[in-house]
TrEMBL record:
UniProt entry keywords in alphabetical sequence: DNA-binding, Transcription, Transcription regulation
Highest taxon listed in the record's lineage: Bacteria
GO BP term, example: negative regulation of DNA-templated transcription
Name listed for the protein in its UniProt record: HTH domain-containing protein
Organism of origin: Streptomyces haneummycinicus
IclR-ED domain residues: 68-157
SUPFAM superfamilies, per the entry: GAF domain-like, Winged helix' DNA-binding domain
One of the record's GO molecular function terms: DNA binding
Record-annotated HTH iclR-type domain positions: 6-67
Pfam families: HTH_IclR (PF09339), IclR_C (PF01614)
Length: 157
């Protein structure tokens, strides 16, 4: 049995996914072509998503993912943190250094989970919830390096 779905909701979610896949945003025309729908439909979808702060438009009219998605994603971090803690504890104890899980949040690195070893006298001062620009700190630089390698492997500049 196939469940009934909402075409409008499906399109709105597809808009969010398309916007999440681009760093430079998309125009109404670009979204219209990618979704295979009329521009009027895209305007209505964007207006609704903007009302909920899930999408924002820049001065050039390009749509981008809005900060409202962070509110939706807040409950994901506790799940990720819980899943990562056993591995982080083991790593911290094995190497005798602070271990942390850092995720990308826009242009920032966000420490989601931090574990200090129990047997050392000193620790790195790094706390869950700490944010810093991606181009600062080892975690952010590692993320940027991995992104660059991924682009190179795909042949993308």
């Amino acid at each position: 049995m196939t469940a009934e779905t909402s075409q409008t909701l499906d399109r709105g979610l597809r808009v969010l996914k398309l916007l999440a896949e681009t760093d430079h945003g998309l125009t109404v025309t670009e979204l219209s072509h990618r979704l295979g729908v009329n521009r009027t439909v895209v305007y209505r979808l964007l207006a609704t998503l903007e009302q909920h702060a899930l999408v924002r438009r820049d001065l050039g009219g390009r749509a981008r993912v809005g900060l409202g998605v962070l509110r939706l994603g807040r409950q994901v971090h506790p799940l990720v943190r819980e899943a990562a803690m056993p591995a982080l504890r083991s790593l911290a104890e094995d190497i005798g250094a602070t271990a942390h899980l850092t995720l990308v949040d826009g242009s920032e690195a966000l420490a989601v989970a931090v574990v200090e070893p129990s047997w050392t006298d000193y620790h790195v001062a790094y706390r869950a919830g700490f944010r810093h620009p991606l181009d600062r700190g080892a975690a952010g630089k590692a993320i940027l390096s991995a992104r660059q390698r991924g682009r190179t492997n795909r042949g993308t500049p």
